[in-house]
Amino acid sequence: MSRLIATSSQTIGPFFAVGLWRPEWSDLTRNGLDAGAPIRIEGSVIDGDGAGVPDALVEIWQADAHGRYEDHDAPVPPDRLFRGFGRCGTDADGRYAFRSILPGVVSDANGTPQAPHVNVTLFARGMLTRVVTRLYFADHAEQNAADPVLRSLPADARATLIAPRVDAGSQAVYRFDIVIQGDGETAFFDL
Description:
Blueprint: H1 16-19, E1 38-46, E2 57-62, E3 85-89, E4 95-101, E5 106-107, E6 113-114, E7 117-123, E8 131-137, H2 141-146, H3 148-151, H4 155-159, E9 162-163, E10 165-166, E11 172-175, E12 178-179
Parallel strand pairs: 1-11, 1-12, 8-9
Antiparallel strand pairs: 1-4, 2-3, 2-7, 5-6, 7-8, 10-11
């Protein structure tokens, strides 16, 4: 007669780098561009202890330079070359990077203009559901101040969504660290 031995409960996986990410998916401009200023978005995914989170998956979705999302049924189509969606896995130190363009102003369902922004989704080991946030650009302070989503947040939460521009020569680079919990935790939205 065999006897079953209980094993300890652990949450590991999923392992995103294996099946959900290819390096070329982090370049939203790889097909070329009709319009838009090229930018780089880089940062780290950081856990509650301040350490980088390896094998997390960051997805972005954004409008083109004219403020249009990819919608094949839209009366005015978006930039035909720009891919408005990207995906990037984090490296062993929790770092990620995207090549994209500065998005245009998008209006919400009420016609209210929103500051240029990038929608961000994060998947990571041990998290049972994704978390969703936004990245806004620090050098668009006037538009950020009028943005209805940013205005709905307390000042300390609002600050976690603003990506500063860092000097990197001719191309604009924006730094956006995603802090999962603890000091400086990124504001996440309940969708």
